[in-house]
Specification:
The complex is a heterodimer of chains A (572) and B (292). With 572 residues, chain A is an alpha/beta fold. In chain A, strands 6-7-8-3-9-10 form a six-stranded mixed β-sheet, with helices on both faces. A six-stranded mixed β-sheet of chain A has the order 17-18-19-15-20-21, sandwiched between helices. Chain A has a four-stranded antiparallel β-sheet with strand order 2-1-4-5, covered by helices on one side. In chain A, helix 7 (151-163) runs parallel beside helix 8. The two termini of chain A are 28 Å apart. The model of chain A has no long low-confidence stretch (mean pLDDT 86). By secondary structure, chain B is mainly α. Chain B has one domain (82-290): MetI-like (MetI-like fold, Orthogonal Bundle). Chain B is 70% helix and 0% strand. Chain B has helices spanning 5-12, 29-51, 83-119, 121-135, 139-149, 154-181, 184-191, 196-232, 244-251, 260-287. The longest helix of chain B is centred in the middle third of the chain and has 37 residues, at 83-119. Chain A binds chain B through residues 19, 268-269, 271-272, 275, 289, 383-385, 402-405, 407, 409, 412-418, 423, 426-427, 429-431, 454-456, 458-459, 462-463, 465-468, 471, 476, 479, and chain B through 5-6, 8-10, 13-18, 21, 183-194, 202-203, 206-207, 290-292.
């Protein structure tokens, strides 16, 4: 432990001033990193972790909007945060950075070689720098522009660029968040090895505990601008002491998480929804939270009856039933090709090839694959947003009405100038259930659904722009289930969310699926989340379903190479 | 029950007010000034003529009195009509004509653009080729031809300008509609069962409106200029009607000994165009709140 300390942050406080409000982003934070060590700064959005990252890089704009106190020392040089004129000598020399999106942080007008040569001085040295980040055929890559490379390659180039000036400190701000899961694991190991070779200190900013454990020697957990816990990575992960860290750890989802019970620690919003469900089913239970905490709350307990109003039922009124035999969604031999013109010639891109599967009553099926595997197109076809070239989709089930979608970006899926009540009413109006309803009845139905997802009537009159991300996600879910659909299609509903919010969304989907008796199709790239919701997992690649696995023993039962790669990509 | 997790949670999660300070405070000093200037200009143009002591088309004093003469603040013209009265009346005419032209052009263009962009397919192709047809002609020439064909009057100049002006809106709106229709919230509304005109009206058009309004407000200035140019070359209503362009061109003959007869109407045209151009930016800031 004789390594010298490279970065020391002492009592750093950063406040932002904007339009009459002062926001404290970081409060009294002290950190230090020794050479050759990697410190993980873990926290949810708004915890101040990126502000610290920006402060030690000296890239917070000194335009008066941000104010800081405390000291930052880098490689023996003592600096005043934000305003010190010496930052210009530190930035890009002693401190370099790897950002989240390599497409935006690489200069699109320069070849990789031109960018690298500025630091290395010669083409040979640049080749060596690229080889250090395990890029084969480095000579060819040097002649390319950023847009000609894949996301993983770009991030490797970014790492090579960041290490080329031989910095004392490297700041990596969510370097793999924008990448595909299987690429993420590769890039992380490249980063790990390159850092070990370079011997610099690393500040690794991430929201993902799995990534932090994989990468870091030490971990600092942040919440609301404060560091709540620091320690060696193994200790913090295995024996979290702070209550917040414990909750964060509990919301982690792995391939061994219990599927039968809610994940994470009991959460007021979800507990409230559970009570609503139970009292509506005529068996109120005040002990739900305790049962959850004690680990004997199973999803089975929330089983409710299904509203049979689907087009195939032949009914015109709503009737609650115990069981349905007809499958909720049947996809038969669907093909889809997108055509585009490249230099005047028609080029076809086969997105889906002969895809068939069924989703049974009350069944949940996950479609798992990387971007470009065709899983999202399949969801859009199932939702009726797009038409298949050949083949058919039958979503005219007996249970529930039609298909509904929860989109990845819930905020963008809500029309910004319409109120929540109007958005929910629109769905109700266009169903058999809502056909004869008055305004007041629709309002009551909307309200009871909002309560079911943990919101109240103050939200009814609000516009989506007034709501937080978590609230928007809940409104989107409420719209999808206000009249229970036959199949609920979920398009990566958790990938843009913080771990704890993602956790409560997954719990909510599971709760609704059991209590409303609906089927779910869950599209995701995250096997752990897929396993939690789904009974069956379909692995997709290249527009085909290559494997169907039962969810319970997913990690053991998966056989295809591609499936195994996805399993390995789950960083536990 | 003293403690209910649900109530507590909901109280914490109250939606924040959308814009606590309102749209006005989002504006900078210059933008506020520009809106005030527009309001003043419109006020002068609307109520000014009523307040003026003279008639705009009847001589009321000696000929070619210079500005600051007693009783005639801005002087008189070659027939002895009061300049101030004629300018205010001219501004009213120009402004009225420009607003009407812009509104009609924007309405036609928006309608065609919305239909083309939303329906797509052959309807889109047909409507857009039709629009291209109009875009292919130089604006001034076609306006001159129409004004010449149906006689010299302000009305014919206005029709001429409308004919060449609407295609710009059709293009603009079609592009916006296509962009907005591909956004997730429109797809989500489609999945919720909203179709056809309802989908268009509720989920697409509100996102396009700010663009159209801002463009239209900027265009009022440009239409004032174009109308004045047509009037200047003799395609507006003939004298003694108080038209700024015609007044400027008639005044050219006396430019050397009575500069005000030509210069003052030109300044009035410039003022109108400038004020509306400047205010367009302020309007854009105010309408940005929808965030699409």
């Amino acid at each position: 432990m004789a390594e010298p300390t490279v970065l020391t942050v002492s009592d750093l406080t950063v406040t932002y001033r904007g339009r009459g409000r002062v926001v404290t982003a970081v409060q009294d934070v002290s950190l230090s990193i020794a050479a050759g060590r990697c410190l993980g700064l873990v926290g949810e959005s708004g915890s101040g972790k990126s502000t610290i990252g920006a402060a030690v890089q000296g890239i917070i704009a000194a335009d008066g909007s941000a104010h800081a106190t405390g000291r930052i020392a880098i490689a023996g040089r003592d600096l005043t945060p934000i305003t010190d004129p010496a930052w210009a000598q530190v930035r890009g020399r002693d401190v370099t950075s790897v950002f989240q999106d390599p497409m935006r942080s690489l200069d699109p007008t320069m070849t990789i070689g031109r960018m690298l040569n500025r630091y290395t001085g010669s083409a040979e040295a640049s080749v060596a720098a690229l080889e250090r980040v395990q890029i084969r055929r480095a000579g060819e890559v040097l002649k390319k522009y950023p847009h000609q490379l894949s996301g993983g390659m770009r991030q490797r180039v970014m790492i090579a660029l960041a290490l080329a000036p031989q910095p004392r400190l490297l700041v990596a701000d969510e370097p793999t968040t924008a990448l595909d899961v299987s690429v993420q694991a590769e890039v992380l190991s490249v980063l790990r090895e390159a850092i070990e070779g370079a011997g610099c200190a690393v500040l690794f900013v991430t929201h993902d505990l799995g990534v932090a454990r994989h990468m870091c020697d030490d971990i600092a957990v942040m919440k609301d601008g404060l560091v709540v816990e620091t320690g060696p990575a193994g200790d913090v992960i295995a024996r979290p002491e702070d209550a917040y860290t414990q909750r964060l750890m509990a919301s982690r989802i792995t391939l061994t998480t219990d599927r039968m019970r809610p994940v994470g620690a009991p959460e007021p919003a979800v507990v409230a929804s559970m009570r609503d469900v139970l009292s509506e089913q005529g068996r109120p239970d005040e002990g739900v939270a305790d049962a959850w905490g004690a680990g004997d709350l199973e999803w089975e307990r929330f089983m409710g009856r299904t509203a049979a109003v689907g087009a195939a039922s032949g009914l015109t009124d709503v009737r609650l039933v115990e069981h349905v035999t007809r499958p909720s969604l049947a996809v038969n031999e669907v093909d889809k090709t997108y055509w585009s013109r490249v230099k005047g010639r028609k080029v076809g891109n086969h997105v889906l090839t002969n895809v068939s599967f069924e989703i049974g009553y009350r069944e949940a099926v996950a479609l798992v694959g990387e971007s470009g595997s065709g899983k999202s197109t399949l969801l859009r076809i199932a939702a009726g947003i797009e038409k298949p070239d050949t083949g058919s989709v039958d979503s005219q089930g007996v249970a529930g009405e039609g298909t509904q979608v929860i989109f990845q970006d819930a905020g963008a899926s809500l029309t910004p100038w319409r109120t929540v009540e109007e958005l929910l009413r629109e769905r109700i109006e266009h169903t058999t259930t809502g056909a004869g309803m008055s305004r007041a009845q629709m309002r009551a139905l909307a309200l009871s659904t909002l309560e079911l997802v943990g919101l109240d009537e103050s939200v009814l009159a609000a516009r989506p722009t007034q709501l937080s991300g978590g609230q928007q996600q809940r409104v989107a879910i409420a719209r999808a289930v206000v009249v229970p659909p036959s199949v609920l299609l979920c398009d990566e509903p958790t990938s843009a969310l913080d771990v704890s919010v993602a956790c409560s969304v997954l719990n909510l989907i599971n709760l609704l699926r059991h209590s409303l008796g609906i089927s779910v199709m869950f599209v995701t790239h995250d096997l752990a989340a897929a396993r939690l919701i789904a009974d069956r997992v379909l692995v997709m690649t290249g527009g085909e379903i290559v494997e169907t696995v039962g969810a319970e023993r997913l990690a053991q039962d998966i056989t295809t190479d591609y499936g195994r790669r996805l399993v390995d990509a789950v960083l536990a | 029950m003293l403690y209910s997790p649900r109530r507590t949670l909901k109280r914490l999660e109250r939606p924040t007010p959308d814009r606590p300070d309102g749209a006005w405070s989002a504006l900078g000093m210059g933008e506020k000034l520009s809106l005030i200037a527009v309001a003043l200009t419109v006020l002068i143009a609307v109520v000014g003529p009523v307040l003026m002591p003279y008639s705009a088309i009847i001589p009321s004093g000696e000929q070619l009195l210079p500005p600051l003469s007693p009783g005639h603040l801005l002087g008189t013209d070659v027939l002895g009509m009061d300049m101030a009265t004629r300018l205010v009346a001219g501004m009213q005419r120009s402004l009225f004509a420009a607003v009407v032209v812009t509104l009609i052009a924007a309405a036609i263009g928006t309608l065609i653009g919305v239909v083309a962009g939303f329906r797509g397919g052959w309807i889109d192709s047909a409507l857009m080729r039709f629009t291209d047809l109009f875009l292919a002609f130089p604006a001034m020439i076609i306006a001159m031809a129409i004004a010449a064909a149906i006689g010299q009057s302000l009305g014919s100049a206005m029709i001429g300008i409308i004919v060449v002006w609407w295609p710009l809106y059709a293009r603009l709106v079609r592009g916006e509609v296509r962009r907005v229709a591909a956004l997730p919230h429109v797809q989500a509304a489609r999945v919720a069962g909203v179709r056809g005109w309802k989908l268009l009206w509720r989920h697409v058009v509100p996102a396009v409106t700010p663009t159209v309004v801002v463009t239209a407000s900027l265009d009022i200035g440009a239409v004032v200029m174009t109308l004045a140019a047509l009037s200047f070359i003799g395609l507006g209503t003939p004298a003694p009607a108080p038209e700024l362009g015609r007044m400027a061109s008639d005044g050219m003959k006396y430019f050397l000994n009575a500069w005000w007869v030509a210069v003052l109407p030109s300044l009035a045209i410039g003022l109108l165009a400038f004020v509306f151009n400047y205010a367009g930016d302020a309007l854009r800031v105010m309408l940005r709140r929808t965030g699409v």
